[in-house]
User: Fold this.
Amino acid sequence: MWEIFILSLNFSLPDFSLPPQKLAPLLIGCEFYIRDVGGIIVEVEAYDQSEPAAHSFTGISARNASMFGPPGRAYVYRSYGIHWCLNFVCAPEHWGAGVLIRALEPVRGIDVMCERRGIMDERLLCSGPGRVGQALAVAHEMNGHSLTQEPFQLVPPTRKHPVISGQRIGISKAVDLPWRFGLLGSRFLSKPFR
DNA sequence: ATTAGGATCCTCT
DNA sequence: GAGGATCCTAATG
Assistant:
């Protein structure tokens, strides 16, 4: 496993028409909310139609259609029959790319998230894609919805953030691509970077 | 710190 | 019918 360091430079909203591995590090440090519940994005993963770990790899289908739609929308899917997980669709339309939101540092609506998750430990509220889905009440109806409209709110970073990258988690194909990105040193990561 | 098993359901083979 | 872009708990080194 290997890692690289990047520094996110812009204090503006990232360009969703970028390919996923370019967009992903720029999302670290942004704040994301659903109905005013959420926090700072500290971990994401890029997925692209050209590699077999992506849901879009085998082409368009009923489930992954929003990945092939316009960038800047949500791709919401059911994981292991249990969790709802959220991606930011990116790259040009028809590309079939997205960035999975894997962990947040809770900022607003912490009481609501504790209630939804049934725990009090702030560190575990949003540290994992399924946990993010439960804490922010990500729902299937949000699939295809614009990320710049209600109930979503995406706020650019207010300072520079050191970003670390490594191998993606929980996949069995294309395991060597270093397309997982995290806020260096954050205690809200779903797993540490080694 | 690491591992194993169960829950659960929709999609695609 | 198989198998997940996961999480939780429990058991063990």
